[in-house]
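thread: overnight batch results

M.L. [08:02]
morning all. the overnight job finished for the chain we discussed friday. pasting input first so we're all looking at the same thing
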Amino acid sequence: MVGCFNLLEWTDDVEVFKLKGYGNSLNYRMGVHLLKDVVNSMDKAIDAKKENQVPGTYEKARLRFSHAETLIPFTCLLGLFLEDEEDFKHIQKEQCLELPPGLQLLETGR
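M.L. [08:03]
and the structure it wrote out:
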């Protein structure tokens, strides 16, 4: 019975990889807007501090709350949880990553 649950968890991981993660290069683009917003808000806070603006007259932090459908593409754009520097180069070229060897069996149906 435990093996059945492990298989279900594994197949869910494969689905997330293919649909929301590194398995689809479109996901990298989906995270760009959020990254631009994060950097822009940080730049504004840094500039306000440098200009000695009165505390309370500028935004010190922008908290973001989201679901996996937003966070996973964002983490892919940042290259988080990658084990190989070559993988990050694929992301920069907007190329999807290959499935890990154990997961390729599911893809080919063998």
